[in-house]
Amino acid sequence: MEGDWIEYYCREGQYARVVEVARKCGGDVKWKYYEGLGLVLGDKLTEGISCLEPLLTHGEYGLAAAHLSLIAHQSCQTVDRDAIAQLEWKVEDVGSVGERGLQLASSALLHSGRHAEARKYVERLLRLSPSSGAAMVVSGWLEMADGNTRAAAKLFKTALSQDKGNLDAVLGELAALNPADGLQLANQLIVRYPRSTPPLAEKMRLLLATKDWTQALDTASRLLTLDPDNLAALEVRAVHQLVVAGDYAEAAVAVRRHTAAVEA
């Protein structure tokens, strides 16, 4: 199910895909939250505020929705100071927020680039539940963002010891590995999710890191079979034609196709 990859799309900054997947998966509170997140971080602020407003009083999603709404209001050209004041009060009132609410808020702040605030919630969550796998995953991605690969790998490994099926922990482990070691894990994900594009995209990234252009292009072709407008695969093709093959005519075609996909 494509919804399994929603956090991956958030981390990759693929906010249009986040909105698309959220709308496709349904209208319950989880997917309305991700729709709102994708809209806000994708700079569709007014739509995002409207989408998140019904969630502000939700027990689990309220704190994360408040943070995202606050970010949206602060980014608007016309600032609603009353709304900002109310949201600032709400994000400070965390005394009754449970573990799930803290995890969602820390994740939202991670995706928003507000890492210091995200860490505060992770630390609070770990005080409530020292063995929380969800907290370890968010903490691991925060460590990755700070370049602390070894610390991140340890956190992801601990989370996986509790739940081997935790996809975001698996992806964290993959990100923390060196490219040569990561290829085996990427191949396992491709077998596990044969109709999903992220495992192929990650394999392509690893192959590029090892400068294996032949396999990288093959993986790009497989990606484009699943998703003809996949930007990463189109970009790899364009760069290969321009830098490696030196075929400027084909490179121009590839660049035009990439541009068309971006503008679609």
TrEMBL record:
Q: Which organism is it from?
A: Cuerna arida
Q: Where is the Tetratricopeptide repeat protein 21A/21B N-terminal ARM repeat domain?
A: 6-217
- Protein name as catalogued: Tetratricopeptide repeat protein 21A/21B N-terminal ARM repeat domain-containing protein
Query: What does the record list as GO biological process?
Result: intraciliary retrograde transport; protein localization to cilium
Q: Which GO terms describe its cellular component?
A: cilium; intraciliary transport particle A
Cited InterPro entries: ARM_TT21_N, TPR-like_helical_dom_sf, TTC21A/TTC21B
Pfam family name, one: ARM_TT21_N
